[in-house]
């Protein structure tokens, strides 16, 4: 692989993700105003001191957008990482052990997936107290059902290969087989899946925050900012659309990169290559 | 999902996020019918003879039974699983600073002092008869409220489906016809972008332009009983448009992948090499085999639509089930949350079951256990 072989669309995606990541990491340096400072009048138009205008309380929209990148990306990334760790460990265990454990995990997974994710999250969040780590954990557990399904399918393909059998006959334990045989051979399809889950996490977190059940104010987060400013829409004030566009842009960028990764892994598998 | 887990369908599949269930594997289950059902328990020999004589009816009955069982398991999870979670209804309901006496009082008021198994059986018994108890917040009957709002939500979803299904299938076929050429690439990029847009962003974008800037649509999409049918239609124009845009991209990508899957099979290649015309190949060779996956795609996306209404209703202030549920979650009104959760799950499960059964009906290969 060299840099030239990366298509334009993937470059757009990579650059977009890089910008968002830079905003997230260096938020206090880049942002012109503080995250929670009221600096002007309510819903001031864009231009002048405030590049994107102000929000429903008179806070600078651009600064909140930059700080919001931090919260949104951190929570979505944490949820995706945990869901992957959980989903992959469980799915590989199921695939390697087989039999009763496999049946138990798979049927329970089917049961979890029988309820739409958003509905499940709504029911669970109605009971649990509102903490950031609880939100991350709920998102991670719900998402791990998807990871489990993909991970099990991929791991089953690898688990029947000769080299796994050889390792087994050699007397290696399940842990060794999971980490040294199956994990390296399933990494590239799972990498694309990781991107996909990350994009989904961003959208899911934003949706929850928009419904008022995600990240709680006054912390800035993109979905919550749409919720804060939605009343302005009727008066023709576009403050709610700016964070919405940011969510969309980041999700599109991630999807563009994922699309390219998918194409790469599927072309490795041969076939007529147009499916 | 037996054929190549990493190829096209999975991309769109997983991107759908809400793509679901599909109990076990599409082709896996009919191949080996559930041993417990097939051999034991339900009167061994009779059931066996029934499977032998009416394999199709038996398969459908099995699916039906599976779905009902799944629904019961889900109800147990929605009720009992929540019970197992840390945190007490009464404490969270009143807030952290409540006195123990107040917590005790509210627990008794709401009947939370009884053991949970007793409450679950009570609740389930009521739910089966269509009675979901009374709301904690408003003290109204939950079933009555849901009765009004469910109709509204279905009205919305029905029109969204009516528009999006033909559009998605048409565009999907167009993309296949021009595969890897300009129209396909344009459709691909646009649909990829559309998948990444959150529902509320599309909704507010439409409101901003159609309702506020150009004034051609009404914004708070309120509907009430005295409205005429035409007025209702104009009120739901924007929410329906939003739902269509949300579902269209998923459905189209999955349709494209399903048809392409058929088009890259050996018999289509043979037909090409024989020198048959494109139209003849699509109409006579590809289409009959593509019907099953496409129907499956449609049913799955309708299930997704049921969930999509939640956000769209909140955006447009539309009096449906989704808004009812979100409001209830914010005030922790558990009877309403549980009732709505169960109803949404039921729709989801039965649409998925419909997808399965239609796939079996449309594809004879799935009928015969190998």
UniProtKB/TrEMBL annotation, chain A:
<dbReference type="InterPro" id="IPR000515">
    <property type="entry name" value="MetI-like"/>
</dbReference>
<keyword id="KW-0812">Transmembrane</keyword>
<dbReference type="GO" id="GO:0005886">
    <property type="term" value="C:plasma membrane"/>
</dbReference>
<keyword id="KW-0472">Membrane</keyword>
<dbReference type="Pfam" id="PF00528">
    <property type="entry name" value="BPD_transp_1"/>
</dbReference>
<comment type="similarity">
    <text>Belongs to the binding-protein-dependent transport system permease family.</text>
</comment>
<feature type="transmembrane region" description="Helical">
    <location>
        <begin position="233"/>
        <end position="258"/>
    </location>
</feature>
<protein>
    <submittedName>
        <fullName>ABC transporter permease</fullName>
    </submittedName>
</protein>
<dbReference type="GO" id="GO:0055085">
    <property type="term" value="P:transmembrane transport"/>
</dbReference>
<keyword id="KW-1133">Transmembrane helix</keyword>
<feature type="transmembrane region" description="Helical">
    <location>
        <begin position="194"/>
        <end position="213"/>
    </location>
</feature>
<feature type="domain" description="ABC transmembrane type-1">
    <location>
        <begin position="69"/>
        <end position="258"/>
    </location>
</feature>
<dbReference type="InterPro" id="IPR035906">
    <property type="entry name" value="MetI-like_sf"/>
</dbReference>
<dbReference type="InterPro" id="IPR050366">
    <property type="entry name" value="BP-dependent_transpt_permease"/>
</dbReference>
<keyword id="KW-1003">Cell membrane</keyword>
<keyword id="KW-0813">Transport</keyword>
<feature type="transmembrane region" description="Helical">
    <location>
        <begin position="73"/>
        <end position="98"/>
    </location>
</feature>
<feature type="transmembrane region" description="Helical">
    <location>
        <begin position="6"/>
        <end position="27"/>
    </location>
</feature>
<feature type="transmembrane region" description="Helical">
    <location>
        <begin position="118"/>
        <end position="142"/>
    </location>
</feature>
